[in-house]
Structures are given as structure tokens and as C-alpha cells.
Amino acid sequence: xxxxxxxxxxxxxxxxxxxxxxxxxxxxxxxxxxxxxxxxxxxxxxxxxxxxxxxxxxxx
Length: 60
What we know:
alpha+beta; two-stranded antiparallel sheet; 10% strand; MBL fold metallo-hydrolase
């Protein structure tokens, strides 16, 4: 997977990474089989993103 863009006006890469890390990737209430309907690249699961997202080193 990937993440959304932050290079548009008002975008903030640090805030985006922090939000993904704290609200999604490290959220113990979201199990690995929790389905994610992202705005890009189709359906995925939290487990797949935790294991394969190209930006995962910033989140875990």
C-alpha cells in the first residue's frame, strides 16, 4: 500500500504520518483483518498495511 499525498496547499506530512501511526497502525482496536477502504489502490486490511505498506517504517 501507500498513503495519501501531503504536497498540496495546507498539507502536512508530519501530521499525516502521525495520524496514520496513532489512529490506524498502532490502534489495538483495529485487528489485522480489519478492512480498509482507502481513497486509492482499492481494498486492503490493517494487517496487510502493517506488513507491506512502503511507508510502514514510519508507523511501527
